Every structure is written in C-alpha cells, then in structure tokens.
Amino acid sequence: MSEIIAKRNAAPLAKQALFLLFRIGSERYALRATEVAEVLPRLPLKPIARAPQWVAGVFAYRGVVVPVIDLSALTFGEPAQARTSTRLVLVNYQPDDARPVQWLGLILEQATDTLRCNPQDFQPYGLDNRQTPYLGPVREDARGLVQWVRVNDLLDDAVRALLLPQPPRDPAQLEEQP
Fold first, then answer.
1. Domain locations in the chain?
2. Which is nearest to 140 in space by CA: 127, 125, 130?
3. What top-level branch of life does the organism fall under (predicted)?
4. CATH class held by domain 14-165
5. Which of 78, 94, 143, 151 can bridge 101 by disulfide, Cβ–Cβ 3.0-4.6 Å?
6. 34-66 pLDDT tens trace
7. Residue numbers of the chain with a pLDDT score lower than 50
8. Which residues pair with 87 in a beta bridge?
C-alpha cells in the first residue's frame, strides 16, 4: 500500500527527448533525433554550380536527389574537417505545413554521441541573431553549453528555392484558383 501512495506523490518524470550531438570547431550542438532520418558516412557529392560555398552538393539516395549543406561552413564560414567522425546526416526538412517533408543532407563533425534530456532544459541565450535563425536555445552541462539546431530554420527562401524547388503544379489546379 505504501508503494502505491509513494507513486501517487512522486513528481511526474519530465518528458525526455533524444538528441544527436555534433561539433562545429570546438563548440557542441544538437539535433533532435526525431528530425534525423539516417546517419551515413561521408559520401561523394556532385557540386552545384554557383551555389553558396556552404552548399556541399547533391547525391542520389534511394531514388531521390538530396541536397547537402556543410553546417560548419554555413555557420562560421569554414568547411567541416574531414575526420572519421564526420558524417552525412539526412534530416527531415519541412519549413512549413504547406510543404511536404523532404530530405536535406547535413555534413556534421563528430556526430557520434547522443544526449537524452528534457527539451525544456534548453534555454534562450539572449541574442536574437537573424543571420542564424536555426541556432536555438542552449543547455548547460558539465562540459559546457550545447546549442539546439532547428532543422526547419536552416534555409532561407532563396536557398530553399535553389535546393528544394516546389514541384510544378498541375495546370488543372491553377485553373481552379481565383
């Protein structure tokens, strides 16, 4: 009987989430595991002419051409180091509900560890950097700060149009609209 009372009085466990940890230089970052479709080794990529320098290229995966960005180059202007722990991480990218989920590849350094914690442990850090809207709140632990990267905020409209163009619409649908 006392066990039942103790269970009722116990604080509910915080909802835990799993994150994939990686580094950009010496700094730690995290992606929510539910946004990760697959973690692959680095693969050969076909470059995209006249794309921003942080667009690493494209590759074919399971019948789909997937654009890949180098998150280190995007964030700090330096490409990711070619290490054995550097991975090509496929993420499920959906900037808004009107678009279908699409794969986007990310080149990430030292993408080998995970973190299980309450997402509410990540707190705003007080700087609204409009140049990097994908860099979210931070969480402190014994090793310092880890920052949450929000996948759906990675690409601005111009880059999204270059890398993930909307499929052509059915002409019959266009006629139905006023």
1. 14-165
2. 125
3. Bacteria
4. mainly beta
5. 94
6. 999 999 999 999 999 988 999 999 999 999 999
7. 1-2, 4-9, 171-178
8. 41, 108
